[in-house]
Design goal:
alpha+beta, 4-stranded antiparallel β-sheet
Protein backbone atom coordinates (compact mmCIF):
# COMPACT_ATOMS: atom_id res chain seq x y z
CA UNK A 1 0.00 0.00 0.00
CA UNK A 2 1.19 3.55 -0.64
CA UNK A 3 -0.05 6.91 0.74
CA UNK A 4 -2.26 7.60 -2.29
CA UNK A 5 -4.03 4.24 -1.97
CA UNK A 6 -4.40 4.70 1.78
CA UNK A 7 -5.96 8.15 1.45
CA UNK A 8 -8.40 6.86 -1.19
CA UNK A 9 -9.90 4.48 1.40
CA UNK A 10 -12.84 5.55 3.52
CA UNK A 11 -12.11 6.35 7.17
CA UNK A 12 -13.25 2.98 8.50
CA UNK A 13 -10.96 1.11 6.09
CA UNK A 14 -8.09 3.44 6.95
CA UNK A 15 -8.54 2.73 10.66
CA UNK A 16 -8.76 -1.01 10.03
CA UNK A 17 -5.52 -0.91 8.03
CA UNK A 18 -3.80 0.94 10.87
CA UNK A 19 -5.18 -1.41 13.51
CA UNK A 20 -4.28 -4.64 11.72
CA UNK A 21 -1.17 -3.66 9.76
CA UNK A 22 0.22 -0.46 11.31
CA UNK A 23 2.54 0.18 14.22
CA UNK A 24 2.00 2.98 16.72
CA UNK A 25 5.16 5.08 16.94
CA UNK A 26 4.18 7.99 19.18
CA UNK A 27 1.46 10.30 20.37
CA UNK A 28 1.51 13.94 21.36
CA UNK A 29 -0.92 16.49 22.75
CA UNK A 30 -1.58 19.99 21.47
CA UNK A 31 -4.39 22.02 23.04
CA UNK A 32 -7.47 19.77 22.92
CA UNK A 33 -6.03 17.59 20.16
CA UNK A 34 -4.32 14.23 20.37
CA UNK A 35 -2.00 13.39 17.50
CA UNK A 36 -1.19 9.73 16.87
CA UNK A 37 1.68 8.69 14.61
CA UNK A 38 1.71 5.29 12.90
CA UNK A 39 4.02 3.56 10.47
CA UNK A 40 2.30 1.56 7.75
CA UNK A 41 4.28 -0.21 5.06
CA UNK A 42 6.79 2.41 3.82
CA UNK A 43 5.00 5.57 4.98
CA UNK A 44 3.61 7.33 8.03
CA UNK A 45 0.06 8.18 9.06
CA UNK A 46 -0.96 10.92 11.46
CA UNK A 47 -4.39 11.04 13.08
CA UNK A 48 -5.66 14.26 14.65
CA UNK A 49 -8.26 13.44 17.29
CA UNK A 50 -10.41 15.91 19.23
CA UNK A 51 -10.31 14.82 22.85
CA UNK A 52 -13.41 16.81 23.82
CA UNK A 53 -15.75 15.46 21.17
CA UNK A 54 -13.97 12.09 20.82
CA UNK A 55 -13.90 12.48 17.03
CA UNK A 56 -11.23 11.96 14.43
CA UNK A 57 -10.76 15.25 12.64
CA UNK A 58 -8.04 14.39 10.13
CA UNK A 59 -6.08 11.43 8.82
CA UNK A 60 -3.01 12.20 6.72
CA UNK A 61 -0.47 9.91 5.10
CA UNK A 62 3.06 10.99 4.17
CA UNK A 63 6.56 9.76 3.43
CA UNK A 64 8.52 12.89 4.28
CA UNK A 65 10.53 12.65 7.48
CA UNK A 66 10.20 16.44 7.87
CA UNK A 67 6.72 15.92 9.29
CA UNK A 68 8.15 13.72 12.07
CA UNK A 69 9.84 16.64 13.80
CA UNK A 70 7.03 17.29 16.36
CA UNK A 71 7.29 13.63 17.43
CA UNK A 72 11.06 13.46 17.92
CA UNK A 73 10.91 14.04 21.70
CA UNK A 74 8.50 11.10 21.99
CA UNK A 75 10.29 8.57 19.81
CA UNK A 76 12.63 6.21 21.60
CA UNK A 77 15.10 3.68 20.39
CA UNK A 78 14.23 0.03 20.87
CA UNK A 79 17.09 -2.36 21.54
Amino acid sequence: MDPAHFTSLDTEDQLNALYFEGSVLANRYEDEFIFLLYSLDSFYVEIRHDAYTNRILQVSAFKSTDKLEPYLPYLTEVY
